[in-house]
Amino acid sequence: MTTPPPVKRQRREEYRRELAAQQASGHGDAEVKLPQKKFFRQRAHANPFSDHQLEYPLSPAHMDWSSHYPAFVDADPSKTNLAGARKLTKDVEVVDIGCGFGGLLIGLAPLLPETLMVGKYYSVQDLGSHETYTYIIPGMEIRISVLEYVTSRIQALRAQQHRLKAAAASQNPEAATAEVNKAAEETNGGAQQAEDAGTMTSIIPGNYENVAGIRSNTMKFLTNFFGHHQLSKIFICFPDPHFKARKHKARIVSESLNAEYAYVLRPGGLLYTITDVEEYHYWVLRHFQYGTDEDGEAERKVGGIKDLWERVSDEELEADPCVQVMKFETEESKKVTRNGGNKYVAVFRRKPDPAWV
Amino acid sequence: MASFQHPFQCLEYVNRQANGQQDVLVASAGRKLYTYSAATGQRLDVWPQDVDSSESAATASTEGQTIPEESKNATEEQSEQKKAPKKSAKTKAPVWTNIPLMVVSRDSKHVAVVTSEDKCIRVFSLSEEGKLQQLSSRTMPKRPSSLTLTPDGQTLLCGDKFGDAYSLPLIPEGYVKRAEPKPRNVGIPAATPLTVHTKRNLETLEQQKRTAPNKPAPEEKEALNFEHQAILGHVSVLLDLISASVPGDSPDSPTRNYVLTADRDEHIRVSRGVPQVHVIEQYCLGHTSFVSKLCIPSWAPKVLVSGGGDGYLIVWNWRAGQIIQKISLNKAVQAQDVIVRGIWEVSLQQTAGPVNAILVALEGCPELLSFTIEGDNTLKPQGTIQLSGNVLDVTGITSKGTISVSVDTVREASSTEMWKSSPSASQTLIESFQVSSSPGTLTWSPADDSMTTEINAAGTTDLPASLDGKDKKTFDDCLYTLGNLRKMKFDD
């Protein structure tokens, strides 16, 4: 005789089953609701050293992005990658490492127009009549339950957008365009609030087709997903602080991992970090060999990883909308705001490779 | 009752003709190092001397001559303190049971080895008479899994089981004084009520704050007391680390140095050489299981041959990360679960010029595969050499145009755990083969030389045949480590 699983888990499983069934059936006529976080809770830590049952591509040229971004699949079916998967019309250039419940993805989705390459930023409105270019942004997450939440959240958002578009088109094409523009203005404010309430009422540029959650242990397998100099932005938001000293080796920022981030990030690209733990902030600076180490240790090394990174100035960060999203729209940042915590931001620019010695 | 002999775990030929000295063979078996004359097979030295009877040999000889008196005492004291509780009063033998890694310096004057349990890199000078003298011993933070030298021969590179790699000078210029432990926020938790919120976490934090001032400062992670640099890290087990040097294509373009690392998560990383190892140039991704061995032939530096647990050798244009060729090993050897134990490059002197070959051994397998590299940089299978026991290590005796293979004397051929029922009267520790080549083909035949006969006759140290299963397994695990690297399947 086996004991039945606890009630909480039963409810959770039931909820997820229903949700999956609903999403598979395309929701019928029912209103598309966003998933509820409480059914997807998972312990905050995952051991990055253990052999999780992970699926990861053999190499970046084997990665099947098409199932995650169906809207961006190249129309030509003969264009396939080494694993035989359909190619996308553009490469992935921005990645959120440890995307958690997906707040950053949702916040960034409408925000990254084409001209946002390096250093200078435009919002969607600035583009005027230019066609909007949307960055494809994967969020990498190791916790399976959390990832399921992100996936169903994005699916629900896409479905909602789909309906809104259909409704707008049937009513009045001009109104629909106006709606898009309005949505662009509301990106940071209204849309987000509406989303928190469970439904989206406006059309968002990109329709969330450009974001997706992917299960991965990036500490091990980042370079299986992304090739040399492929990325222009990496976000590491509120990483697991691993408070205990003997757990520090599990931190996602370290000198040796920074070499890998430098490999996938192109010269001029940016690596964003934010944390609410002051000690971690100094850890980050130390591991980029930057700044304010209280022991005065930071300047001890010549060369080293500092060859590859320079810290971005505060003035420049002020003007960067990504920093705003990072500071105020990720799930964790909202929690920190609620609890009156501090937020420490450090952004590093990838320098060109140094000359060979 | 006869005993087994400890097989040779590492075997290195040292060519000293440039120095005008006799060639030697350096080998490790059990916890000892041996040197032999490559001409006659006469044993020249054993290190450490009489370890089994004397208590002083290990500890006394671990401290090098180069240490100034003052710090010598300090180090001894510390090592004494550290070892004391671990070592039971009965066993005074060295703390290590085997010597799994060995490299010979390019000038043939030094030998560096790793002793396993004490995680120690020991560097020896090799005298004209083939005597070993320990110059330094440096204890690494984690157990080393690979050891090599940079192309200039001055710097040791050491990868460990935690995925980190360090560079350290071959000959340390004296000991760096251990930095005074810093009063780095001792006992003050990094968490604050602003960063932890749940009731339980807050309670723990309160408790930490209360007890912190009274608690003795946590032992600072012991700083290494010698010159070293952390050069790279994988979040995985580092299984091999090699350095490579590629001459420029034109006389103007300079030679470039690289460090290549292989890990348990299928990666081969190509980084720039010291001191720019943090600049990653390429990943060679193509293996579907751990990568246990990398080999870049000195005579074909643009080619990398790699192997591991997936049953394939992959030949790479490694600077471009491109696969040139995949060779299935399951076809070459009738065995399941094939793991590459070693890949060696040899360049053997023959009258008509050097014969170059790639030799490949599989874990727990009494066959040695040989290949040549063709003009298009593909591998061409050549003859397979059959041995009396599992292949452990291979070295090319370049001057004689032969290879010597160390074989497992203890276990049945093709098994990594089944011991022979009883030791045979004459135990074959090494076998030697000579090569003959006609265009496009290599043929290997047993070499009948006195070196081999003499070394086999002399034996190493006794390994009792009457051990119980657990002790046997301990010995098995020293020699055959690769089978444990397979990933476990479990639910998340």
Folded structure, characterized:
The complex is a heterodimer of chains A (357) and B (492). Chain A has a single domain (83-350), classed as Rossmann fold (3-Layer(aba) Sandwich). With 357 residues, chain A is α/β, with parallel strands linked by helices. In chain A, strand 1 (94-97), helix 2 (103-108) and strand 2 (137-141) form a beta-alpha-beta unit. In chain A, strands 3-2-1-4-5-7-6 form a 7-stranded mixed β-sheet. Chain A is built from 11 helices and 7 strands. Mean pLDDT of chain A is 79; it is low at 113-132, 182-197 and 293-302. With 492 residues, chain B is mainly beta. Chain B has 6 helices and 30 strands. The longest helix of chain B is centred in the N-terminal third of the chain and has 18 residues, at 69-86. Chain B starts with a strand and ends in a 13-residue tail after the last helix.
Compact description:
Chain A is 34% helix and 12% strand.
Spatially, the strands of the biggest sheet of chain B line up as: 2-3-4-5
Number of helices of chain A: 11
Structural class of chain A: alpha/beta
Distance between the termini of chain B: 52 Å
Average pLDDT number of chain B: 84
Proportion of helical residues of chain B: 10-25%
CATH topology of chain A: Rossmann fold
Global outline of chain A: globular
Largest sheet of chain A: 7 strands, mixed
Major sheet strand order of chain A: 3-2-1-4-5-7-6
CATH class of chain A equals Alpha Beta
Name of the CATH class of chain B: Mainly Beta
Q: What do we call the CATH topology of chain B? A: Methylamine Dehydrogenase, Chain H
**If helices are DSSP runs of H or I spanning 4 or more residues, what is the number of helices of chain B?**
6
Largest sheet composition of chain B: 4 strands, antiparallel
Total DSSP E strands of chain A? 7
Tell me the name of the CATH homologous superfamily of chain A: Vaccinia Virus protein VP39
Q: Could you give me the name of the CATH homologous superfamily of chain B? A: YVTN repeat-like/Quinoprotein amine dehydrogenase
Return the structural class of chain B: mainly beta
**Uncertain spans of chain B:** 53-91
